[in-house]
Amino acid sequence: MDFSSFLLMRQEIILLAIIILLLIAEIFIPKNKKSSIVHFAIFLFGIHTIVGFLSINECSIFGGSFQTNNLIHFFKNVLNIGVLILLLQSADWIQEKIVAQDKGTEFFILLFSSLLGMYFMISSGDFLMFYIGLELSTLPVAALAAYETSKRISSESGIKLILSAGLASGISLFGISLLYATSGSIFFHDIIGTISASNLTILGFILFFAGLSFKISLVPFHFWTADVYEGAPISVASYLSVISKGAAAFILMILLFTIFKSLMHIWENMIYVISIATMFIGNLFALRQQNMKRFLAFSSIAQAGFILLGLISGTQLGTTTVVYFIMIYIFSNLAAFGVVQAISSKTGKENMTDYEGLYRTNPKLSLVMLLALFSLAGIPPVAGFFGKFFLFTAAASEGFYLLVFLAVVNVTISLYYYLLVVRAMFLRKGENPIPFFKNKIYMRLGLIITVIGIIVLGLYSPLYEYIYELSSIYN
Amino acid sequence: MDILSLFVVVPVLTILALVFTKGLKQARQVSMVGSIIQLGMAVNLVISYFKEKAINDNIMVFTKDLVWFEQFNIHYAIGVDGISVALIVLTTIVVLAGVFISWKMPDLPKEFFISLLVLSTGVYGFFISIDLFTMFVFYEIAVIPMYLLIGIWGSGPKEYSAMKLTLMLMGASAVLLVGVLGIYFNSNADGGALTFNILEISQVNIPFEAQKLFFPLTFIGFAVLGALFPFHTWSPDGHASAPTAVSMLHAGVLMKLGGYGVFRVAMFLLPEGAMHWDWFFIILAATGVVYGAFGAIKQTDLKYINAYASVSHLGLVLFALLTLNKTAWNGAIIQSLSHGLLTAMFFALIGMVYGRTHTRDINKLGGLMKIMPFIGAIYVITGMAYLGLPGFSGFVAEMNIFVGAFQNPDTFQRVLTILAVSSIVVTAVYILRLVGKIMMGPLVNDDFANLPKATWYEKTGILLLLIPIVAIGVVPLWLSDMIMASLDPFIKGVL
Predict the structure, then answer these.
(1) N or C: which end of chain A has fewer CB within 10 A?
(2) φ, ψ for residue B301 (rounded to 5)?
(3) pLDDT single digits (tens) A40-99
């Protein structure tokens, strides 16, 4: 292995370099200038995001435990953009709250480590790398969830996350060990050849699936979601619901479509049931939420149920629609969380009733929220509609009309609670509306990028065609 | 830019211009200019349509096709036939009248006009689409602004009504989505590629089993918007809470999407399914006709009376479509136009009465003819047209429908036709009673003695609607010709 093969891990290496640079910067930046670390980190990550768009060769290194291809590379770029938006949106909060406690650098280091874990997870070529990636992506987030140490609810959220994540990883690991026992290898390409539908394999698969379901917060592994989101700082909740969920759904899809392809007749039924349960439970619980973070938590559970509709088809169409939907979901949800973040960091208000009359005082923020909610609900012409329509098309292409019907019932249910927020912002005048405030440049930039994404991703079809081309390798 | 895409582009440009306006004056001027341009375009479209039709014998003319999502074979495909041209003209008239009626919009005027124009963009897009996907997109774009329009600018239990309306219509569109996907995945039944194009699908023999399954989904998906009994409940509440211009646009234009969709998609693409389910839905439609009429008798709120009357009259449209008879179909399309104009007129008048007297309760109104003669006279004329007096559009429509419906020798259908015809009598009852009560007789409330007369912009809006009502009533043949010629491809499927 020569030096050039290291360059195939460019994304990982650069991110690692950024982490180390931040560590060094932490030592050298004087105490009264600590807030510059925010600019520094965003600048570095921005460069990383741009460099990420350089193309990369398909490869498999370290004896096959690390692999990458154009689709994986593309997805890493999507994650990068998501994290960049997230950083922009939380920059002010970090500067005001976190840097003041002298914990700014650690925040970035933990966040980037988690992202690094996701890179390894989605690029993994064997279960060992996968497991390391999974752990690396989860543990730092637990620390981040408990970041607001002055709040008890934040610590609670951290503990909840780490306990349930630990359990889930354990279950997953047990599943992996059973799969190893039956197939004799941890390498994906070996397993593909030897996997058969023996009882032990199926048990292993189910346990493994349970572990990943926890990360995507599929029912019945969703109980941690709302509590953790509510307690965690908004940017962390946003990270969990957008980046973490997206990456986990992506790797689940890849594994299902490659190594577990021959078990399709089994996981098809599982996903069928789980998808229905996830959509219904997520949506029905979201109906009565008052806290915006809990609200978005349940909404994101329901969205995960929709993602499964694309998975169930098991075709190239399915792969494409899932990746496309996740990408749109990242932008839409980030926009919604961004507005919640902006309002919360200015006023500390996080309840739906606090949003009453928001349009009359802060029209621009309300419009961003409106677009984000419409996109989540799937109303044209914003991108969410296209994402959902294509997911349904993927499911219908394999004849799952009943499932599609239940999904569209859920779309209608979800529309109700998304409209509740619209009602608060636009229809009501509110006795004590949030007064007008101006966002700082980072936040504005973060919101503008999401809005552009929400509008352009759907209407601009070449992007979809591009993903379709990339997806051909999993067919 | 082709002649049809302009109908989407001009409203969008108007919306963009509205974003930069300040205050009521600028907003309404910009909207007025935009709507007048649209009306001009519609007139131009009719003229060009007749010219084009003389040399071009295709089902759809002015077609244009741009690939959008290649993998799904989704195209931005547009084209019009006589039916869509007629409905586009109707839309431009009602939109312009709506802008005039909303001349004094006190609260958030800019946002109001923007929402109104978003709605009309959706409607235009819907009528020009011949691609199911594009059509579906425009359908939802047309429906969703209603939530804001009713919720922000409405009156009474507006939040409830807005939510009910939006959820029922979006729920219907969700059902429709399954139907559309079902059609799409059966569009390769003859061995071709999957397609969303309506004209291409109409050439395909979709298996009977699939038609049986997807016809009800598609039909109900559209018919909810056409106030099919028992899915009409959103409509009275929605109308009653909506501001005047929105009621006009809603009853006048938006509900026509339902009938048009039923015809163009459900019945055109799934004719065997239509014949299979015909007996069931025609019962519902006939029930709606009678139920709506009796519902209107019982109401005392002016808007509710009209909303139930709409259920009855639009039930007649669905009824006529389901009789599978060409004459009745012709009547159904004319009824759509006629009802669109008349009901928009009614809602405009109600808005004027309510704006002056601040009540819509017919028991508290009376003798208004003396105070506001213009409004009173128009009210009487509209009422007469509504109950089907010859010389107005309503007569032409209903005549065609009932003659056509009775041509079918089937006893079952004749019984239903007789039932539906009886609604005319009931309509006469509530219209005459209504007009007599609020316009004639002595003045019941002395506070009303000094109410202002109709203003210029109100009169303009009213005349815009009145002229076509009379025109259709007096010279219906040119319209019938245009529509009849376009019905042939439809009749082939069900014979």
Answers:
(1) N
(2) -85, 130
(3) 899 999 999 998 888 777 777 888 888 888 889 999 999 999 999 999 999 988 888 888
B143: left (phi over 0), alpha (psi -120 to 50) or beta: alpha
- Which residue from A389, A405, A461 is facing B68, i.e. has the nearest CB? A461
Query: Residue B361's beta-bridge partner residues?
Result: B301
Q: How far is CA A240 from CA A15, A289, A333, B392, in A?
A: 19, 19, 11, 64
DSSP at B443: -
pLDDT tens sequence across A156-181: 999 999 999 999 999 999 999 999 99
Spans of all domains in chain A? 3-474
Task: Write out the residues of chain B at the interface with chain A, using a CB-CB cutoff of 8 A.
Answer: 68-72, 74, 133, 137, 140-141, 144, 147-148, 151-152, 158-159, 162-163, 166-167, 170-171, 174-175, 177-178, 181-182, 184-185, 213
The residue in chain A having the minimum alpha-carbon distance to the alpha carbon of residue B143 is: A379
Q: For tokens 């499964």, name the residue.
A: A308
User: B48: alpha, beta or left, given left = phi > 0 and alpha = psi -120 to 50?
Assistant: alpha
Compute CA A174 distance to the chain's CA centroid, rounded to the nearest angstrom.
25
> Would you call B63 helix, strand, or coil by DSSP?
strand
Most A CBs within 10 Å, among B170, B176, B188, B195, to test the A interface: B170
Domain boundaries in chain B?
6-494
Q: What is the pLDDT of residues B241-296, one digit of tens each?
A: 888 888 888 888 888 899 899 988 888 888 888 888 888 998 999 999 999 999 88
Contacts of A390 in chain B (CB under 8 A): 72
Q: Do B151 and A415 touch (CB under 8 A)?
A: no
